[in-house]
Design goal:
By secondary structure, the chain is an alpha/beta fold. It has helices at residues 18-26, 46-56, 71-80, 100-105, and strands spanning 5-11, 33-40, 60-65, 86-89.
């Protein structure tokens, strides 16, 4: 089995971009991923989007923060909850190429 990659995504009021970000992750050629979504105190529909995904996909974890602490704080919280051999930080407005994680591991 391939090594687990923990993908940490801080999300603050990202309802307009989070879907395309996650779609690009779901299209990866490398599939042994855990996705850790950090809802960084969002006031839009970001928390609901995160919760819906976590209910539908067992490899998606969601952590809700009561107030916005910024991306560095969110990433550190993600790190403390990651269990992968490798770590990748993706921003909630990023879209990545389908071979991104495969290339990372190679």
């Amino acid at each position: 089995m391939s090594d687990l990659i923990s993908v940490i995504i801080p999300a603050y009021n990202s309802e307009e971009t989070l879907g395309s970000c996650l779609a690009s992750i779901f299209r990866q050629t490398y599939s042994n991923l855990e996705i850790i979504l950090i809802d960084d105190g969002s006031t839009d529909n970001t928390p609901q989007i995160c919760d819906t995904l976590a209910k539908e996909m067992s490899f998606v974890k969601v952590i809700h923060l009561a107030k916005n602490g910024g991306p560095s704080n969110a990433r550190n919280i993600g790190l403390s909850n990651a269990s992968g051999k490798y770590i990748s930080f993706i921003d909630s407005d990023d879209e990545i190429l389908p071979t991104y994680f495969e290339t990372l591991v190679e």
